[in-house]
Design goal:
With about 210 residues, this protein is α+β, with helices and mostly antiparallel strands. It is built from 9 helices and 4 strands, in the order βαβαββααααααα. Bound molecules: glutathione (GSH).
Length: about 210
């Protein structure tokens, strides 16, 4: 099995390189330079109709046929199902994995992403408004994670695709101006995740 990963060096791209490394899945990387509009070219839109990275192609998908998958959450679930790793079969164990995966997709990604955006806005009033709104919500999300991690080593009972999704964005905490010292349980989890050889390989692989 070889997966083609189409990605760039961003939080959503890194989630998948981390997951592939942790799962021990062989893969190739095709860089999609989102700075020059490569994501809007027809051949990429054919596998990622929303024009965003990441996407994967599995040449040996279900029933032995090639399949493409877009949206990083769908990709993580696909890879977890395919490898039988980091996504428990047991429904009770699967629930927290899906909860924290969706938490990342609905909030801890879109919201710090807005902080990244507003930091670049030139108009001072607009910048101040955006940063006030989205930095406050980003801090609240870190507090939610801190409470969870005060009672759990990982977001579910074992390391899972939810941790891979969240680490992609936590990796950018300096950019969204978060000091992890303010969230000690997140900091402990972050350091534990970053010490994992698979995670380190996932962040080291060239995506740009
Ligand atoms: N919900 C999507 C978000 C993907 C996304 O926002 N990707 C960004 C990079 S991190 C992108 O491709 N941006 C290019 C653009 O918006 O034109 C996912 O999780 O896959």
């Amino acid at each position: 099995m070889t997966i083609e990963l189409h990605a760039f060096d961003t939080p959503n791209g890194r989630k998948i390189s981390v997951a592939l490394e942790e799962m021990g899945v062989p893969y190739t990387v095709t860089t999609v330079d989102i700075r020059n509009g490569r994501q809007f070219e027809p051949d990429f839109l054919a596998i990622s109709p929303n024009g965003k990275i990441p996407a994967i192609v599995d040449t040996e998908g279900p029933h032995g046929k090639p399949v493409s998958v877009f949206e990083s959450g769908a990709i993580l679930i696909y890879l977890g199902e395919k490898t039988g790793r980091f996504l428990p079969q047991d429904l009770a164990k699967r629930i927290p994995v899906l909860e924290w995966l969706m938490f990342q997709h609905g909030g801890f990604g879109p919201i710090p992403g807005q902080v990244h955006h507003f930091l670049t806005v030139e108009n001072e009033n607009d910048r101040r408004y955006g940063l006030e709104r989205y930095s406050k919500e980003t801090r609240r999300l870190y507090s939610v994670m801190d409470r969870r991690l005060a009672e759990h080593a990982f977001f579910a009972d074992e390391p899972s695709i939810a941790d891979f999704a969240i680490i992609g964005w936590a990796w950018r905490h300096p950019r969204h101006k978060i000091d992890l010292a303010d969230y000690p349980h997140v900091q402990r989890w972050y350091e534990a995740m970053m010490a994992r050889p698979g995670v380190q390989r996932g962040f080291a692989v060239k995506l740009s």
